[in-house]
Write a structure and sequence with these properties.
Strand content: 25-35%
Shape: globular
Number of domains: 2
Number of strands: 18
Oligomer: single chain
Largest sheet: 12 strands, mixed
Strand order of the largest sheet: 7-8-9-10-11-1-2-3-4-5-6-12
Distance between the termini: 53 Å
Structural class: alpha+beta
């Protein structure tokens, strides 16, 4: 596996993308519908970025949203710092066991991205990222004594966990994944990457999709992020009393329109729930070999469930699975997105609630191989009741979930009362 370029220098590479090497790609743009809504129905507050440092030309919020939508950066490399403070309880390591046991194909491989990248949901993490067009991307999670890398190179998607020397492999039919953003959204998202957006652009796109007539969008000065001049776009829910979202701030690169930093503060105030930003970025072509990967000798290789389950002597699957994981495109959820098959959405905008039926009566599972799982998890929730019956609400500083005793789940960036009301209305 080729290493990333050194991150030892504090200087920021500001090489602009040559026009001849930049191709507009639908999968890297906010869907056109967002721009249309911004221009026609949001009622953007026409604040101008005429203060702060650096001194940049004035721009309206509508123009800045348009700039994000038209950003056509396809080549970059850099370092991203993610800090997540959801206020989750300390489960004493149980959460890692639960997520590893819920690997996308049931294999339990420590290199499976559907399990590994859920670790980004708490704490502070450093990521190295690189992209060279729609068919080559790489994300590496840097730990103190180990590294987890996820590489998409043409038809192959590899996950490698250096700590356990485990390898996860899938194949993707690149011919099938070429197309519009809408087509990409329908094709992507099978194997867990959709549950872990990794860059400010991933989060910014999802935030802008939630914009409606209950939203204020303004430009609030300028900033410098990773040595780049940027505008600050501020998104605030208005007249949406049930949401837990307070303020979203996006630093947008003044030259390329690429979001460089994303910060989400909850309605309850305090420290940011999510702060994702580049600390170093280059728009030059990534070094040759960045996306090459050969499984280390002796490494345990697990094939994705749709890869045919068979591999040749070279370790590659003999059949294609047909899809690129969602996290490599624009469809990743704001803090996890995804959702179970058959999920329905109640409400709209900031008060949206996803609901689905687990098919399991009795609410939280009452037992597991480790003992009384239901009683343990239940101790972290609040018992509630309504016309829907009884259930348990699990709360964080942003995302709340209600699990009813008849197996229904209601989840969203809304308050506990909003979940109970939604369950009552659906009963």
């Amino acid at each position: 596996m080729a290493p990333y370029e050194s991150d030892g220098s504090r200087d920021v590479e500001e090489t602009d993308v040559p026009h001849s090497r930049r191709r507009k790609a639908a999968r890297y743009a906010v869907p056109a519908a967002v721009v249309g809504v911004a221009a026609a129905t949001i009622g953007l507050v026409p604040a101008l970025a005429d203060s702060g440092d650096p001194d940049l030309p004035k721009i309206t919020a509508q123009q800045l949203v348009q700039k994000i939508a038209e950003s056509d950066v396809e080549q970059l490399s850099g370092t991203v710092r993610i800090n997540t403070d959801l206020g989750l309880p300390d489960l004493g390591g149980l959460e890692s066991g639960l997520t590893s046991g819920a690997a996308g194909d049931g294999s339990g491989s420590s290199a499976d991205p559907s399990a590994k990248l859920t670790e980004l949901a708490s704490g502070t993490h450093t990521l190295r990222v690189a992209a060279d067009g729609p068919d080559r991307q790489k994300v590496s999670v840097i730990e103190s004594a180990a590294e987890y890398s996820l590489i998409h190179n043409g038809e192959d998607v590899w996950g490698y966990d250096s700590k356990s020397d485990a390898v996860y492999h899938e194949t993707a039919d690149t011919a099938e994944t070429a197309g519009t953003a809408a087509q990409d959204g329908a094709r992507h998202g099978r194997q867990g990457l959709g549950q872990a957006p990794a860059t400010p652009k991933d989060f910014a796109e999802q935030a802008l999709k939630a914009v409606d007539d209950t939203t204020s969008v303004t430009v609030d000065g300028t900033a410098q992020v990773a040595g780049r001049d940027a505008y600050k776009l501020v998104v605030k829910p208005q007249h949406a009393s049930g949401t837990t979202v307070g303020v979203i701030s996006v630093a947008v690169d003044a030259k390329t329109g690429l979001p460089l930093k994303f910060t989400l503060t909850p309605a309850s105030g305090g420290a940011a729930v999510l702060d994702v930003g580049f600390t170093r970025i280059s728009f030059a072509e990534p070094a040759a070999g960045t996306f090459d990967f050969t499984p280390p000798k002796g490494a345990k290789i697990t094939e994705g469930k749709d890869a045919g389950g068979a591999k040749g002597a070279d370790g590659k699957a003999r059949e294609h699975s047909g899809d690129v994981p969602q996290g490599f495109g624009p469809g990743a959820g704001l803090l996890g997105g995804g959702g179970a098959d058959g999920a329905k959405v109640l409400g709209k905008g900031w008060n949206s609630i996803a609901t689905y039926d687990t098919g399991q009566k009795g609410g939280i599972p009452s037992s597991s191989a480790g003992g009384d799982l239901g009683g343990f998890l239940g101790s972290f929730g609040d018992k509630v009741s309504g016309t829907f019956g009884k259930g348990t609400v699990f709360s964080t500083r942003l995302i709340n979930a209600l699990i009813t005793d008849d197996g229904k789940v209601y989840v969203g960036a809304v308050t506990k009362d909003a979940l109970v009301k939604a369950a009552d209305a659906a009963h």
